[in-house]
Amino acid sequence: MIPTVILGAWARRSAESIFSAINVIVFLCLDGLECILCMVYRFLDSFFEGKPSSCYCVHDGEICDDGVRGDVPESEDELSESLHGRKNVIRGMKILKSARRRGIAAGPKKRVVGGGNGVSEGIPVRWSDCRCQACISWINDKEQKLHLAVKESSIVSSDGMSPENVIFLHGFLSSSSLWTELVFPNLSESVAAGHRLFAVDLLGFGKSPKPRDCFYTLRDHIEMIEKSVISPFQLDSFHIVAHSMGCVIAVALASKYHKSVKSVTLTASPYFPSAKGDPSLTALRTLAGKRMWPPQQFGTSVMSWYEHLGRCICFIICRNHRTWEMIIRLVTRRRHTHHSAWHTMHNVICGGMKLMDGYLETLRRSQVKIFVVHGDRDRVVPLEHSIGIKLMVPDAVFNIIRGANHNSVILGREREYVRFLERAWDPSSSTSTKIRGCKAG
């Protein structure tokens, strides 16, 4: 019996060692491929657009691909450390650095953050991005505002007060259709009548603008929401509902408008305490660590760690989405560019983590009502993230959905989710103090 147990443990350890070795070899090969693709894209960008696009294949403070570091936001803290902090063994070799610098083209590429019309000088989209009408329709919008799905209230309350406003923010690689198709139709008539709903396509996603000269920082996203929703509709008070990545933007927005926000509902929110090292790199290693298994994790790793390899995948899938849609007979609304997805991943999901504690502290002091919803089987953003938010804001209402993952926390249980939202928006509801069946650990 004992030899069998020992043999089984030895076999397990051996298998783990072999798999770890394969994992290292695979990502080492990807490191090399990324370096090759960097030079390939420099050549192709120069050929199709006249000059190479800048990239993050150097460490912060070194010479950029186009000879200089280029224009950066007013506060460099807006950029995530994960952009330059991604380690690449092959890239660090001196012989490769010399080869890359010999191929540097003269002339920096100017990049703009916020403001302006959001369209690059010359070519508004990369040659490797899709140019179908559905993907570039935003270019014709002179005001360059976010695409909105607005559901107006049908009646005015008896006391003459205006209807309450709710802003919905989707997650990474998603769009406003998450809310318009799953939440809006399930609202009760009384709530729908007394609330004005705004489902936003975030900057760089869906039908919203996807400027190639933008860093897609938290500030960029907040400014576009202000420009497209808060200012034109003159919102003096509002609720915020968000899912996944949208929660980071929601917390930042609520912190800025803490005197106007009535409640914030965070669904499957990522969170890393800023006290534990660099939260940006911690977020990258945790949410998108270099692992081959499971397959979804491998895909996330490739798209988050390898800028040029990810661009190749986007070229094959996103640029040719009409062909894929025809093949699989499925029309997708997840429209984005590699540039918008790459920078949002790093500057919002990763970079936003170093600011979350400050934002949450502002909301705590302002006594803004925070509702946290999370599935206990979420492998994309584990439950521990929301537990961290609960520890940071003890008064937050914490609702664990048993058996739900990152998507099924909403999908498949739309009515339950909507009933929860309705109670959260109702100041007289017991939801504001206690949720039946909730658990904080």
Describe this structure in words.
With 441 residues, the protein is an alpha/beta fold. It has a domain at 133-279 and 347-432: Alpha/Beta hydrolase fold, catalytic domain (Rossmann fold), CATH 3.40.50. It is 43% helix and 9% strand. It contains 16 helices and seven strands. It has helices at residues 2-49, 81-85, 94-102, 133-136, 177-182, 189-194, 218-230, 245-256, 279-287, 295-305, 307-317, 321-328, 338-350, 353-366, 384-392, 414-425; strands at residues 148-151, 164-169, 195-200, 238-243, 261-267, 369-375, 397-401. The protein has a seven-stranded mixed beta sheet with strand order 1-3-2-4-5-6-7, with helices on both faces. Helix 8 (245-256) packs across helix 14 (353-366) and helix 10 packs across helix 11 (307-317). The longest helix is centred in the N-terminal third of the chain and has 48 residues, at 2-49. The protein is globular. The two termini are 38 Å apart. Residues 166-275 form the AB hydrolase-1 domain. The chain crosses the membrane at residues 21-44. This is AB hydrolase-1 domain-containing protein. It comes from Trapa incisa. It holds the Pfam family Abhydrolase_1.
Itemize the secondary structure elements and their pairings.
Elements: H1 2-49, H2 81-85, H3 94-102, H4 133-136, E1 148-151, E2 164-169, H5 177-182, H6 189-194, E3 195-200, H7 218-230, E4 238-243, H8 245-256, E5 261-267, H9 279-287, H10 295-305, H11 307-317, H12 321-328, H13 338-350, H14 353-366, E6 369-375, H15 384-392, E7 397-401, H16 414-425
Parallel strand pairs: 2-3, 2-4, 4-5, 5-6, 6-7
Antiparallel strand pairs: 1-3
Helix pairs in contact: 8-14, 10-11
